[in-house]
Structures are given as structure tokens and as C-alpha cells.
Amino acid sequence: MVKMLKVPEHQVAGHIARDGKLGPLVDDEGRFFKPLQGDARGENEAKFYESFSSNKTVPDHIHRYFPVYHGTELVEASDGSGKLPHMVLEDVVSGYSNPSIMDVKIGSRTWYPDVSEEYFKKCIKKDRATTTVSLGFRVSGFKIFDHQESSFWRPEKKVVLGYKVDGARLALRKFVSSNSLADSSSAPNCAFASDVYGGSNGILSQLLELKAWFETQTLYHFNSCSILMVYEDESILMKGKEDARAQVKLVDFAHVLDGNGVIDHNFLGGLCSFIKFIKDVLESSDNRDETDACGIENGK
Amino acid sequence: MVKMLKVPEHQVAGHIARDGKLGPLVDDEGRFFKPLQGDARGENEAKFYESFSSNKTVPDHIHRYFPVYHGTELVEASDGSGKLPHMVLEDVVSGYSNPSIMDVKIGSRTWYPDVSEEYFKKCIKKDRATTTVSLGFRVSGFKIFDHQESSFWRPEKKVVLGYKVDGARLALRKFVSSNSLADSSSAPNCAFASDVYGGSNGILSQLLELKAWFETQTLYHFNSCSILMVYEDESILMKGKEDARAQVKLVDFAHVLDGNGVIDHNFLGGLCSFIKFIKDVLESSDNRDETDACGIENGK
């Protein structure tokens, strides 16, 4: 039986299966097919998923931050090159109608000990040109569902990779705002900040759970790995808080290495910096709420 | 009145005032005189001390991890070049008879955004050659008082800077051991681990207090800064736990920059890695104590 695979609708970074290029595919049953690249990276990522998915020392509440792995399968590649081995993963946005998504690459470097000089030079140039060195993370891409326009708004890749500190901060505010998407003149209102970033099921509380694990885990070093943030903004507007379905997933494990008894201080440092940025958005939107509340009080 | 200044007895890293070279001096009243270097570094360090010592937003329990600053003073330089401006600091080992000391440079890089290419290249070469990149810290130097020999044991600088992961781990075990100093064939016994690293006043608990501050502070980025660990091992042997006088101090602020609203993820990541190493030493020595206790029980 031939599976009906298609190009994912909601990818915001990485190789994209378009115009006859090789990239990931999805089916209608919530599975994501990621081609094993020709070089060692694909093999390394599959090896990581094999190791991680069967690792009993990783607690269940941590396993849920990673896409479920269903092994590898030969499927028709998106570039028409015939059947190629693909990793079969959970499609983390399956079940969302109009997910807003952001991909944030964590760490203050994307290179690591023992890489080739060529790879080192390529990485460090990009790390210095983006916020990787200065912030310990860089936004790789995002898209936001604009419920007024009933369409997605997404900034150009070139613009995103050109962010400095203020650009990254603004993107994290914009990501949870209902206004000012295409319009850069008005300030993001952070209307969804408390529903998406805050609360006991929100992004911040998930990031803090990950942080606690990274403070002690010495199994893996997650070089060049991303945090994916997903939520459904339409459902917040329609049904209220419990439906934001805010979710954090770790993705991209082509450069994961054994930890060898050392914590992943590169990922952890960047994660702590990212957490501080999310907290800052939450705090400023809390203050805004209070100001609004005061305004209402005073207007009585 | 001419002050009687002398070369510090207990310096384990940095420029040393010996053989007519420029370096720090101490007096008999617990003060440490650090010459302002000719280039911007000295000025930058003095500027940091001025800013930090008067910063009321830094909590008191954090101020105590930094040497007290008494301003600058013109004193006779150690290299015979006449009077030079010196920062007047607290001599953190004043009052100790025979302090064991370790200097650990924190961070997975010693360079930072906007440095010259020359400085960047010099730093990254050393960061990759030492454990700075792999561990997020490197041991810069240490000395241990050997109470059997009544003298200090210290490894050569070249040896210390050549440590890999295992070397750094061994140094942190050796630092709190009463055996195997010059003898590399027997394993360090970690006899002082629980007195020095453990307990409510020990190194670990001080490091955790610093970590909590670094998770939120966005005032300063402590590039190329060191943690100094000091304790008095003789007094443990003579008087017991409360006299280890284990102390953590941050030193070397020539490359501190404004945080500009971003946490120091480089220092924090390295600090978390260092904390994990200290915890590992403590845990292995706890296990050893239990084994010993079992041995005694069984021998009854």
C-alpha cells in the first residue's frame, strides 16, 4: 500500500520539501517522516532516537518533551530520488488547527569539541552573527496565526537570523500578541502571554521542568538542538485558557553526543537565558494587566 | 609613611610579583594591592569594583562573595617602576595560617562579543586546548597544604592547564584529600570532602547561593572571571568541621561587561557544570563513608 505523504504545513525552520528538494513529509495519522541525510548526521539522529526512546533512566515527564519515535522506514523521498530511509516520528503539530510555532536553537555555540576546522569555522561565524553567542539562543523561525486575517504571518528567514537582542525580545512578545503582526509601528500587546507562557501547563513551567533535568543529566549533549514552542491561539479566543495547548518539544538531534558524565552546560546556560526572556515577557504583561485593572478601578 | 608591602604567599594564578615583575602585593593588615595594568583592563576592573561595591540592588549575601574594595592608591610597584595606581582590595586569605586554594576560571568561553579578532583567536585557542569548552570551566591553579610534610603541594601550571575532563575531576578530589598529593599512584581519599564541600557553610551551599543569583541577575557579564576556593585543612584535623572556613570568592574582573538585561548564561552554564562536579565528589565520598560504616558494623 502506498502511503499518502505530503509536505508539512507547519514547518518553520530546517530543510523544507519544496520545489523538488529533500525534506520531511507527514501523513494523515500524526506521523512525521524525516529523511536520513546522506552524511553521518541522519545516522546520528536515528541513533539518538533509538538510544533515548529506550532509555529507562530518563523520567517519563522528560520523555514527553521529545517527539515519539517509531523507528525508520523506507518511503518515497520528496525529491523524487526514490525510496529512502526516513525516521518515523510523532508529528508534534498534528491535531492543531492553526498552530502558532516558534523554533529556537538553544546554546551559546552550535559547534562542539572535535569537529572539523571547516565545520567549526562555519558554525562560529553564524553563532557570532546571530544572538547565539550574546543570548545563548537564537530564533530560527516562527509563524503566528493571525485570527483577524485568518492566515499565518511569518517573518522572512533573513530577518529572523538578523535579530539582535532587542529583535529576539520583540519576537517573543509578538509570538503571544493578537495585534501588530504585519504592522511594525504598534507595540505587541502580549494578549496571550499569560495563557501561553504562564500557568501551570504553560511554556514557562515546561521549560523549568526541562531545566531541572538539565542540571543533573549527563547522558547527552544536545548540540545545535532546538526548542519548538507551539500553541493554538484561536482556541484561546474561543474557549479560554485551558485550550491554548501550549507545548514545548525538543527537536533536531543530528549533533547530539554522549555526555560522558558532564552536564550539557552549553544547552543549560542558553535555556536559563531563554527562560529569563520568557519571564520578562510575562512580568511586563502582568504589569500591564495591573495597570489596566487600576484604570478600571479609577474609572468607577 | 612607607607601607611595608610584600609579595602574596598564597597566589595560585595570574600575574605574580616575582623576579622584578609587576604583580599584586599585600600588607599585614589584610589588604591586597592589585596594580592597574597599563591597558584598558585595569581601568575596567577598577570601574567594575566602583560600580559593584556601591550597587544597592545586589543583595548583601551576594556582596560577601566578592573581595571588599577600598578604592585605588598610589603605591610602589613590585617591578621597581616607581609609584603606580593599585586597587586596594580585601586580601581574602588573610587570617588563614595554611590555606589550601584553588582558582577555577568559569565559563565555556573567555572571549565575548565585540573583542578584536586577535583577542578572540588567542582566547578560543586556549579555551579549546583546556577544559573551558568541554566543561564550562578550567582549573587555573591550586595548592594544598600537606600537613604530613608541613608544606604546600602544588602542581605545575603546565600540568594544570593540560587537564582533560578526568584531570579536572581528579584535581577536585585531590583538593579535599589528605593523602596522595605528590604520589599519583594512590587514589585521593577525599577525607575533607564533607567538611569543605558539604554542610550548610560549605563550598557547595555557597555555589548554590551564587547560582540562584546568576539565574536572574542581568547587571554584569563576568567574562574570564574566576572562582577562588579556600579552606584551612589543618584546622579541620585539629578542631573539627566548624573550622574548615571553606570560602568561595569571585575574583578577576578585568573583562566584566554590562549585562544589558541579559543573564550571564556563559558564567551560569559553567557554574552549573562546576556544581555538578563538586556534587559528584561529595556523593562518592558519602558512599565511601557508608561503605566504611558497613565495614565497621560487619566487623563487630
TrEMBL record, chains A, B:
Its EC number is 2.7.1.140, 2.7.1.151. Keywords: ATP-binding, Kinase, Nucleotide-binding, Transferase. One of its GO terms (cellular component) is cytoplasm. SUPFAM superfamilies: SAICAR synthase-like. One of its GO terms (molecular function) is ATP binding. Belongs to the inositol phosphokinase (IPK) family. PANTHER family: INOSITOL POLYPHOSPHATE KINASE, INOSITOL POLYPHOSPHATE MULTIKINASE. This is Inositol polyphosphate multikinase. It comes from Thlaspi arvense (Field penny-cress).
